[in-house]
Amino acid sequence: MVPPDFNLLVTLDVLLAENNVARAAKRLRLSPSAMSRALARLREATGDPLLVRAGRGLVPTPRALELRDHVSQLVPSVEAVLRPAGRLDLSRLQRTFTLRAREGFVETFGPGLLLRVAQDAPGVRLHFVQKADKESAPLREGAVDLETGVIDGTTGPELRTLALFHDRYIGVARAGHPLCESNITPVDYSAARHVSVERHGSGNGRIDEALQALGLHRRIVASVDTFSAALALTRSTDLVASVPEKHTEGLRHGLYPFPLPFPAPEITVALIWHPRMDADQGHIWLRACIRDVCTGSVAHPSAAIAPRPHSQLRSK
User: Which of 139, 171, 181, 172 is nearest to 315 (CA)?
Assistant: First the structure.
């Protein structure tokens, strides 16, 4: 069976409105002969003459009258499907977005992001979930709208990425720690008792590589799999943790931060999404909100939200 030509719906709508082949052809910018051929195809498809001669004009058949109102409503609906989406009305938007991120993102950037969202689209809800791994399936399957992370060779090649900010590793200790009382040297740092964050892409491996280049090694006495756990241990012990500066800002309250006394590993934190969401207007708006809050280092509702220029990257 030959599939129907849906272009004929528009032709049928105009023919039944005009009851005249010449006028219908003019409206659709077709020649009268092309319109006559289209009418012949419509008659074959419907099994009905549709328009029949009556004196010098044409009149619709009962089947045509039955179809006229239905087609006149159907054609605008079909055209709406193929038309670009209208302007997004944020004040009326009712939607929940799921954002997956490592620990520290919500504490550091969540307040500023929630303020921005409440100002623009009060009907929008944000659902934050922890990022336990770098698996891309949640983005592909639509379980997650956006996620943040460090782009590397494990990132799905089809995913879209947008650089949010550059970060560097710093040392953190409790207030009153002996390291707080002197200018810290690489020897002082390596000799301290350390808690290491051991997970793929944590940056701690690059810290050890930088120390090895100086002929030094950290004295690691404990290891954990999250920055929040490392900071919790430093809060009540003499352990030293090494964590990303910006990303853990919301987790380090009351702790003593210090620059690493050697070239610190740097990372780029990016926003990641699936390409099927590229043109979604709500998604575009939320990406801009996150970019503005993160690039402006807005960590608290009282801070200013200032957008900055950005560039789009592709996963390697």
Answer: 139
- Do the Cβ atoms of 16 and 67 come closer than 8 Å? yes
Q: How far apart are CA 65 and CA 234, in angstroms?
A: 81
Q: Which helix (H) or strand (E) holds 127?
A: strand 124-130
Q: Where do the domains of the chain lie?
A: 7-82, 90-316
Question: What are the average pLDDT values for consecutive 10-residue runs of the chain, which has 316 residues?
Answer: 78 90 91 93 92 89 90 79 76 94 88 95 94 81 89 73 92 91 90 86 76 93 91 94 91 92 86 90 95 70 31 34
Helix axis angle, 7-18 relative to 32-46, nearest 10°? 110
Q: How far apart are the C-alpha atoms of 142 and 101, rounded to whole Å?
A: 16
Q: List the CATH code of the domain at 7-82.
A: 1.10.10.10
In words, the CATH class of domain 90-316 is alpha beta
| Percent helix, percent strand, percent coil in the chain, to nearest 5 | 40, 25, 35
Q: Are 254 and 177 in contact (CB under 8 A)?
A: no
